[in-house]
Amino acid sequence: MGAAVFFGCAGIAFGPALALVLLTVAAEPLRVIVLVAGAFFWLVSLLLASLIWFVSVHLSDREDAKLQYGLLIFGAAVSVLLQEAFRFAYFKLLKKADEGLATISEDGRSPISLRQMAYVSGLSFGIISGVFSVINILADSIGPGIVGIHGDSPYYFITSAFLTMALVLLHTFWGVIFFDACERRRYWCLGLVVASHLLTSGLTFLNPWYEASLVPIFIITLCTGLWAFFTAGGSFRNILKCLSCKQEDDSRVMMYSALQVPFED
Q: What pTM was computed for the model?
């Protein structure tokens, strides 16, 4: 039973991310590099947030339960702000790298677009964030023990898996929106990304009241996904074409110049 719970929850949490990596990232070396580097940036932000929380806890009264709970909320908020700060730093780095790649390329264009880097960097933030948020839970799911035997919710593992899946997808969507907002200097979009990230993290403090946390987080995920889709240039017409699985007939007429390069004997 423990193995079934482990593999089932792991598949729910990381199945979509694994599919995205295999289908859109793994075959391109530059995208793999962006993926790994993005995970490193997220880890640095987590390290700084952990240090701030660790110091604040040791400087406070550990016997005060309310104070410690408040410091936990404070640590989560600091972690979110640091993640977004490092996302911005990663954008600046990738922007410089994109300019350098365009300079050394033969046609003067970068082999990877900024939107592609935004997508891959967001995916990397999501994967590494999901791993750190659910790895201990997955380890406990193997056993021994039964969740809920003392009156707790028996849906702890499955809910954690769905929350992790939503978090991975949200980071991917936030990456697309964040990079586009930085490129176009849309500061209100940056504010909405940070606010939605703070709101999502805050909703997790409602657990184990899962109805109050899981449902709003998935609504935020759906809305953010639609926002990222249109930000990346998507449209309802593209969705209909994808669902219909039909190819449009190419009725365009090709015009050739009358000036032809003569064949060499």
A: 0.86
